[in-house]
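This part of the workshop introduces the protein records we will be handling. A record pairs a protein's sequence with a compact description of its fold. Backbone structure tokens are a discrete shorthand for how the chain folds in space. The question running through the whole workshop is how a given chain folds. The record below serves as our worked example for the rest of this section.
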Amino acid sequence: MINGSPKIKDSCSEYLIDEITKLLDNKTEVTVCNASDKTLNKGQFNSIYNCDAIVFVFPLYVDAIPSHLISFLEAFQKYLKEQPVKNISAYAVSNCGFFEGNQNKYALDIIENYCERTGLIWKYGLGIGAGPFIGESKSISWKTFIKKPVFNAMLDFKNSLETGEHPNGNIFVTAKIPRHMYIWAAHIGWRKQAKKNNLKTKDLYTKLK
């Protein structure tokens, strides 16, 4: 599992990695690597290379992937060029602040193209909408009505990791929350952050000069 979040802790990506890992059977050995770790070395790349499957988990940044994850991918590509060809399956889980999960489409395409370039065997990607809600809903059970669509997609993802079987194309999903309610909650979050940084609501709409 490659954590592509720039946050040191408490990121949605970290939460998704933890939850997917819990779903896997106890025969599956999981190694987690943080793509923002600037101390990554050949030994750590060896650990990734020795896995049967790699899962890139990251937040959507401007319809693409975070810049530090790009740096990680470039370094790993150089490493792979020096290694014997090995069948390694690759997956991706992208979460976004947009409500719609299909906003992750292009980011997942980037990872698929990377796999084609490096020889990794692309399986499929999972695009999750309303990421901030998912990341902040740790106290809510996955089996509740509101989170169950995402949970079901994660179960399918878990089964693919264990069996190698996968759908013909990426899967996009969003929590069962009304769109207007999600946007309303997002605005409250922005206002709280503004207040925390000594700004007023009107400052959020001030044009930069």
Remarks:
- The chain has two domains: 2-177, 178-209.
